[in-house]
């Protein structure tokens, strides 16, 4: 009989209970005991909804980030965080730079988890790195789950993926030199799990779906030859793509089970089944762990029938990856229309789908007849629904030509006109767009949506918030201002609500990092713009000041990447549809007198396919989509874009191809290391390297920010440098933002005085 399991479950809670507990603890309004109590309640709920599975995961839960947890459990804590303080204080200082208690310190670097919108904290390894195991907290969670009656499968980030995702803070890359000591630590870890009576351990090595060099392939062989001696069975988990060139390697490793992603890598199912021994477990991720569309049960069952008949209980059925990337429970959604809701499945429902598929394989399709009929009906209704396709949108996409994505003149000609028009000083200062979303602002939107505030009352209140933000920026003496985005709930959701083809949930929250959650829109149909989305507020802000105000838009690739996209057409087509809608908005902003327009693309790197062979085609349509959205304006209108928490080295050609007049990027957590690529590549346009980390509450000094700018001058000519934070300021408080921005402006002025 086929068995069932999951690779992980959302850890923020059904109603974001963990988020609110974390933020109460960080603010000093709650205790560690209450935080841990809330965390335990979330874990208990997670295990309860997965109790019908043959194995439930343990160790997938975290208070902030599972990669950080792994580093802490291995004793890989950088020297600057070591102090005589409670463990939880050290933990949060690594994550945020600040904790209740302890000294503020630069936090660990943060970047994207493979090609997802989840951010992990990058472990830092010293040249003489030692590992000291402390897994008591994970063992306690395992006992907690078993005490509740669950059969537990602990989850670990694999040793080679851990090393690969780590960084050597100083000196040459010596990560692989740490492998023998790390394997020893993992061996001890598995021994401790065996001592708890654990039979199966899931070890995640998503590195296996990427193009890795021979030394990393050898590292995987070395690691699992050693770990195969442990007194537990290892389920080696890959996800987010196919094994590709690592197929022979993965199927040769001496582990008891192998998990593959049969959603992102559906083509590999037959190949892996043929290559993997039939006396070992093959776990097939057949339910999409990263999107919200309901599984076509009949198609899933058909794809597994022959494998199930041959492998019996050596076939495990699972989601494709951890359900961390999915909202928790569709049953909470009471405002989605019945038709659309019938097409969807969230975390709880995906667990149910796994069980249904296994039941059909084990007992025949008649055992799930009602569910199978409902699945068939939903699939047929979605395919034939008239709300999905628009002839007008299809014709406009078909009419796109190469000229539509070309600015009128080359950058050299444009920037001269822009400098003449804008008349900005050296080292111009700006922000990335958003300002603090205060309780007052959130309350205004909440009351307006609930009908407690009329439309005129709401608009008047938002106008006052915008005016207050303009005055704050003038007082700080910033050079290019923003309207602050008081009217926006989220940089993607806001636009989705104003575009046709999008649907929204009330409780479809997904963790982005720590306590930060996003509620991705669902793209269910063709996308178009019915009316202007941002023009009125941007134009109003511009009437309040003589300084230029930036129009703020989210780019087509990021709107696509940070939504749940439809899966019945190509991503390229969706990106083109969004780009055309944004193009109309950009032109309208220019006509309204907005001469600086920022089109944010923080997901540009994130959507990059993990396989090198697939990347060129992606760059072709992603670059075209951005340029299509931006190219309708005159030369003297300045187009900005923003990217954060991305490794740029592999994509610098594509970034240059965007042809944005100014790009702002995250560099502060990495101490400008992300700028290394600009030393070797003569990037032609203007750049704003972020000079302070907005994801940490600490306030950097004037000298610290000035030093970062001066370091950037080793890579970028001073006349092309902008000064700005790493990202938007919506998650910060004003008592953090004011002094940080004041220091930033003072740093820019200090440098101006040196070149005057």
From TrEMBL:
Residue positions binding Zn(2+) 1: 642, 644, 666, 727
For this UniProt record, give its keywords in alphabetical order, as a comma-separated list: Amino-acid biosynthesis, Metal-binding, Methionine biosynthesis, Methyltransferase, Repeat, Transferase, Zinc
Gene3D superfamilies registered for this protein in UniProt: 3.20.20.210
Described function: Catalyzes the transfer of a methyl group from 5-methyltetrahydrofolate to homocysteine resulting in methionine formation.
Catalytic residues, chain numbering: 695
Q: Where does Zn(2+) bind?
A: 642, 644, 666, 727
The yes or no answer to whether the keyword Repeat is present is: yes
Name used for this protein in its record: 5-methyltetrahydropteroyltriglutamate--homocysteine methyltransferase
Which residues take part in binding L-methionine? 432-434, 485, 600
Top-level taxon of origin: Bacteria
Q: Which residues form the Cobalamin-independent methionine synthase MetE C-terminal/archaeal domain?
A: 428-749
Enumerate the spans annotated as Cobalamin-independent methionine synthase MetE N-terminal domain: 4-309
Query: Which InterPro entries would you find in this protein's record?
Result: Cbl-indep_Met_Synth_N, Cobalamin-indep_Met_synthase, Met_Synth_C/arc, UROD/MetE-like_sf
Q: In which residues is L-homocysteine bound?
A: 432-434, 485, 600
Family, as annotated: Belongs to the vitamin-B12 independent methionine synthase family.
Question: What's a single GO BP term from this record?
Answer: methylation
């Amino acid at each position: 009989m086929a068995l069932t399991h999951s690779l992980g479950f959302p850890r923020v809670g059904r109603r974001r209970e963990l988020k609110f507990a974390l933020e109460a603890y960080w603010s000093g309004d709650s205790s560690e005991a209450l935080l841990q109590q809330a965390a335990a309640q979330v874990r208990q709920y997670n295990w309860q909804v997965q109790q019908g599975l043959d194995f439930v995961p343990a160790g997938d839960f975290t208070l902030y980030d599972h990669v950080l947890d792994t580093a802490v459990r291995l004793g890989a804590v950088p020297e600057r965080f070591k102090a005589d303080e409670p463990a939880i204080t050290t933990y949060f200082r690594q994550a945020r730079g600040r904790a209740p208690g302890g000294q503020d310190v630069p936090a660990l670097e943060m970047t994207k988890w493979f090609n997802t919108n989840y951010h992990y904290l990058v472990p830092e390894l010293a040249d003489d790195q030692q590992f000291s195991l402390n897994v008591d907290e994970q063992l306690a969670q395992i006992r907690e789950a078993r005490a509740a009656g669950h059969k537990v499968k602990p989850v670990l980030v694999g040793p080679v993926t851990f090393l690969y995702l780590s960084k050597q803070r100083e000196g040459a890359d010596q990560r692989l030199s740490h492998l023998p000591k790390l394997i020893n630590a993992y061996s001890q870890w598995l021994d401790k799990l065996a001592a708890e009576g654990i039979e199966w351990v899931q070890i995640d090595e998503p590195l296996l779906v990427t193009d890795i060099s021979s030394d990393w392939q050898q590292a995987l062989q070395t690691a699992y030859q050693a770990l195969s001696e442990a007194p537990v069975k290892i389920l080696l988990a890959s996800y987010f793509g196919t094994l590709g060139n690592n197929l022979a390697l993965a199927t040769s490793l001496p582990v008891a089970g192998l998990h593959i992603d049969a959603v992102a890598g559906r083509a590999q199912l037959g190949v892996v089944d043929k290559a993997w021994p039939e006396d070992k477990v093959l776990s097939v991720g057949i339910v999409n762990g990263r999107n919200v569309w309901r599984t076509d049960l009949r198609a899933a069952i058909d794809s597994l029938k022959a494998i199930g008949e041959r492998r019996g209980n050596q076939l495990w059925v699972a989601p494709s990856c951890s359900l961390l990337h999915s909202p928790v429970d569709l049953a909470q959604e009471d405002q989605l229309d019945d038709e659309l809701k019938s097409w969807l499945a969230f975390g709880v429902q995906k667990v149910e789908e796994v069980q249904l598929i296994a039941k059909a394989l084990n007992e025949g399709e008649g055992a799930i007849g009602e569910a199978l009929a409902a699945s068939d009906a939903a699939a047929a209704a979605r395919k034939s629904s008239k709300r999905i396709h628009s002839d007008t949108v299809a014709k406009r996409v078909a009419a796109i030509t190469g000229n539509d994505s070309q600015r009128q003149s080359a950058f050299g000609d444009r920037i001269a006109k822009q400098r003449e028009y804008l008349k900005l000083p050296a080292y111009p200062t700006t922000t990335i767009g958003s300002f603090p979303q205060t309780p007052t602002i959130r309350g205004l939107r909440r009351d307006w949506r609930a009908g407690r505030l009329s439309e005129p009352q709401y608009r008047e209140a938002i106008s006052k918030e915008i005016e207050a933000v303009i005055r704050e920026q003038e007082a700080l003496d910033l050079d290019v201002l923003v309207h602050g985005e008081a009217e926006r709930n989220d940089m993607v959701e806001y636009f989705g609500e104003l575009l046709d083809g999008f649907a929204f949930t009330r409780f479809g929250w997904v963790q982005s990092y720590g306590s930060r959650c996003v509620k991705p829109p669902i793209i269910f149909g063709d996308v178009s713009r019915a009316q202007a989305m941002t023009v009125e507020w941007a134009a109003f802000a511009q009437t309040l000041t003589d300084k230029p105000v930036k129009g703020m838009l989210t780019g087509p690739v990021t709107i696509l990447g940070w939504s749940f996209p439809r899966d019945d057409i190509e991503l390229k087509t969706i990106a083109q549809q969004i780009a055309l809608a944004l193009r109309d908005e950009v032109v309208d902003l220019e006509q309204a007198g907005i001469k600086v327009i920022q089109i944010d693309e923080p997901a540009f790197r994130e959507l990059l396919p993990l396989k090198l062979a697939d990347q060129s085609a992606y760059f072709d349509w992603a670059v075209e989509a951005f340029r299509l959205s931006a190219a309708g304006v005159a030369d003297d209108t300045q187009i900005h874009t923003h990217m954060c928490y991305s490794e740029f080295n592999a994509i610098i050609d594509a970034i240059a191809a965007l042809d944005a007049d100014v790009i702002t990027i995250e560099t502060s957590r990495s101490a400008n290391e992300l700028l290394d690529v600009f030393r070797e590549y003569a990037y032609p346009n203007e750049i704003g390297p972020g000079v302070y980390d907005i994801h940490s509450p600490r306030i950097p000094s004037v000298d610290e920010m000035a030093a970062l700018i001066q370091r950037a001058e080793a890579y970028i000519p001073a006349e092309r440098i902008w000064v700005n934070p790493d990202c938007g300021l919506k998650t910060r408080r004003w008592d953090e933002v004011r002094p940080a921005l004041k220091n930033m402006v003072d740093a820019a002025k200090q440098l101006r005085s040196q070149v005057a």
